[in-house]
Amino acid sequence: MTRVATRSLAAALTLAFAAAAGQPALAQSDNSGNSGGQSKQDVKTDWSEKKLEQFATAATDVKEVFEEYRPKIKNAENADQANKMQKQASDDAAKAVKSSGLSVQEYNRINQAIQADKGLRDRVMKIIRKQQGQGQGQGQQ
């Protein structure tokens, strides 16, 4: 992968991480009254390699879901249709996260950690580049 393509991928996935964290379906509610917001001191940054690999897979899939739905939502005939498509996109993104082996809560917590810790973000980007390289080597994408 070229340096420019790698930078573009990194920028796109950073945006996907941030966008996905803000999507309603990816924000699990709990009955404790805790909104899930954590201060930077509370963010766990010592995630296992397996969890980071699962996150990398999920983040790539979530990015693809939102890329698929973005033009559909933008071209919706009315606000109700746009809202329905946005909910479907969020539901599909949550399914993608769960199919990676993570819970939505774990995905969101790792996403928060990536926003707070550049070293962790770099580790995830390295995993994503490795996964992308494996997919290309097999004739995918």
Automatic annotation (TrEMBL):
Signal peptide (from-to): 1-27
Bias kind Low complexity: ranges: 24-40
Protein's name according to its UniProt entry: DUF4168 domain-containing protein
InterPro entries in UniProt: DUF4168 (IPR025433)
The entry's keywords: Signal
Pfam families attached to this UniProt entry: DUF4168
Superkingdom of origin organism: Bacteria
Record organism: Limimonas halophila
Keyword Signal: yes
Domain DUF4168: 48-124
Record's keyword annotation contains Signal: yes
Ranges for region Disordered: 24-47, 77-96
